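User: Hi! I have a protein structure encoded as tokens and I'd like to know what sequence might fold into it. I'm fairly new to this, so please keep things simple.
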């Protein structure tokens, strides 16, 4: 497996870890009656600040993972893999790992900086695949 695909697989597993990090406290705070419902109405209780932030970080990773997946597919299927694209893939993955605590603990401006590093690593992969 290429380094880019390995980083993608690990990023997908990280998404599962993020889901668990969010789902457990959300279930405890909102109660199973709500979390197992169709959620046609807002919850009667609010989640804690940290749990809500973990949920937003999870959603952010879904968004970032889409573009990163496209970049990995373009690099892999376009046979444009290189040490540079591999490094970009690992930078993206590292940024996503760091993003979880940075978002959960509201570490400003680090959260935004870590996000930008992952985003630009993904863009650089796409650009590298074109040349």
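Assistant: Happy to help. Inverse folding works backwards from shape to sequence: for each of the 131 positions I chose a residue that suits the local structure. Here it is:
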């Amino acid at each position: 497996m290429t380094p880019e695909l390995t980083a993608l697989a690990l990023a997908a597993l990280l998404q599962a870890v993020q889901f668990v990090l969010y789902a457990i406290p959300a279930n405890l705070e909102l109660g199973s009656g709500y979390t197992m419902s169709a959620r046609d109405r807002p919850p009667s209780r609010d989640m804690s600040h940290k749990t809500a932030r973990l949920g937003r970080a999870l959603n952010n990773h879904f968004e970032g993972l889409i573009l990163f997946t496209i970049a990995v597919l373009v690099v892999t299927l376009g046979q444009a893999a290189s040490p540079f694209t591999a490094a970009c893939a690992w930078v993206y993955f590292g940024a996503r790992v760091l993003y979880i605590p940075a978002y959960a603990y509201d570490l400003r401006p680090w959260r935004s900086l870590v996000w930008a590093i992952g985003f630009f690593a993904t863009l650089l992969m796409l650009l590298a695949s074109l040349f």
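A useful reference point when you look it over: Residues 28 and 45 are 11 Å apart (CA to CA). Feel free to ask if any position seems puzzling.
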